[in-house]
């Protein structure tokens, strides 16, 4: 009987070891991000009604994105902006430096690290983290972006203008813990949407100025001589990016 028990022990021991190895490996292996959440508002409005899908973006095409993060403190930033702009507020004119703004409203370094670690794990290259900890640049191939943001990048043709562009077919998703601090992912589409800025006004036919000055009179009144063409002057265009 004792001999039989020893033999059974010798047979069972390797089996237990063999079963334990995969279990330990599974425990140490990276776990997939099972719970994901969508970034609302990050799909072109009317995309599938106003454009025709023509194919898929080449998997190796490199694309840059900018990930915007929601400020900390809920509506505290809105309150601060209102007070610092109100002449009747004790906070009027008490603006913040970039460092003060980041410390008060920006995401924490731990949250930024969590986002960067995730992006790198998907194969993306993380670029600049802008001052204030509310904007992170990254780039990668279309295939890597599709994996990271859980969406499909397709090529489209605008039904009205005939222009071709690429765009994500569905809202991008991220692990829920990261998605909770992300407000927008810019760069997943390159569609140019033009908007008319002119505001029409109704003109009354019998209205006119009660008086006024001619251009020559204004020129003389301000003692302006010569012709001003604007040459040599510099202007600046303030834009978020070239997406």
TrEMBL record:
PANTHER family in the cross-refs: PROTEASE S8 TRIPEPTIDYL PEPTIDASE I CLN2, TRIPEPTIDYL-PEPTIDASE 1
Keywords: Signal
UniProt KW Signal keyword: yes
Native organism: Streptomyces puniciscabiei
UniProt-recorded name of the protein: Pro-kumamolisin-like protein
Domain of life: Bacteria
Leader sequence segment: 1-26
GO MF annotations, alphabetized: endopeptidase activity; tripeptidyl-peptidase activity
Domain Peptidase S53 activation, first and last residues per copy: 48-191
BP terms from Gene Ontology: proteolysis
Entry keyword annotation includes Electron transport: no
């Amino acid at each position: 009987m004792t001999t039989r028990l020893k033999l059974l022990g010798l047979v069972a021991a390797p089996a237990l070891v063999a079963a334990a190895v995969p279990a330990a490996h599974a425990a140490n292996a990276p776990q997939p991000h099972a719970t994901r959440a969508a970034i609302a508002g990050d799909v072109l409005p009317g995309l599938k009604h106003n454009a025709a899908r023509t194919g898929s973006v080449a998997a190796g095409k490199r694309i840059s994105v900018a990930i915007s993060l929601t400020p900390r403190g809920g509506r505290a930033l809105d309150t601060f902006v209102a007070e610092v702009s109100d002449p009747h507020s004790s906070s009027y004119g008490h603006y913040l430096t970039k460092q003060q703004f980041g410390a008060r409203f920006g995401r924490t370094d731990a949250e930024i690290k969590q986002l960067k670690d995730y992006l790198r794990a998907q194969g993306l290259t993380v670029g600049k983290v802008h001052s204030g900890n509310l904007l992170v640049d990254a780039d990668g191939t279309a295939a890597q972006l599709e994996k990271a943001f859980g969406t499909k990048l397709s090529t489209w043709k605008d039904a009205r203008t005939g222009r071709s562009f690429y765009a994500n077919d569905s809202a991008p998703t991220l692990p829920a813990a990261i998605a909770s601090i992300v407000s927008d992912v810019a760069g997943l589409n390159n569609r140019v949407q033009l908007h008319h800025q002119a505001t029409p006004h109704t003109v009354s036919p019998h209205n006119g100025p009660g008086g006024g000055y001619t251009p020559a009179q204004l020129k003389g009144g301000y003692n302006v001589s010569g012709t001003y063409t604007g040459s040599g002057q510099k202007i600046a265009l303030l834009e978020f990016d070239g997406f």
